[in-house]
Amino acid sequence: MPAALNPYVLPFLYCLGSLLVAAFGRRRRWGFWGYLWASLLMSPVLGLLFVLAGDKPARRPKPAKPAAAPAPAPAVGP
Questions:
Q1: Are 38 and 46 in contact (CB under 8 A)?
Q2: SS3 labels along the chain
């Protein structure tokens, strides 16, 4: 029996595709687990479409660094 006809190949590829879709979506709106479940329940192809159509989360602005205090003036005379 050829390896391509092994009954475990298609479920393995399906799960692997779902994991890849979840990895692509880990920084998106639903996160890793949301896209993993979506692609497992529907299909990896639809899960990939969800990732591509999903919004990226809004980036938070970095907090501003405090301004440095001015250097003290040098002392003059004894």
A1: yes
A2: CCHHHCCCHHHHHHHHHHHHHHHHCCCCCCHHHHHHHHHHHCCHHHHHHHHHHCCCCCCCCCCCCCCCCCCCCCCCCC
pLDDT digits (tens, 9 = 90+) for 47-68: 999 998 887 777 777 777 777 7
77: left (phi over 0), alpha (psi -120 to 50) or beta: left
CA distance 48 to 40: 11
Amino acid at 15: C
Contact 36, 60 (CB under 8 A): no
Task: Pull the structure tokens for residue 24.
Answer: 């692509």
User: What's at 63, amino acid-wise?
Assistant: P
CB-based contact 42:14 (threshold 8 Å): no
Decide: pTM greater than 0.85: no
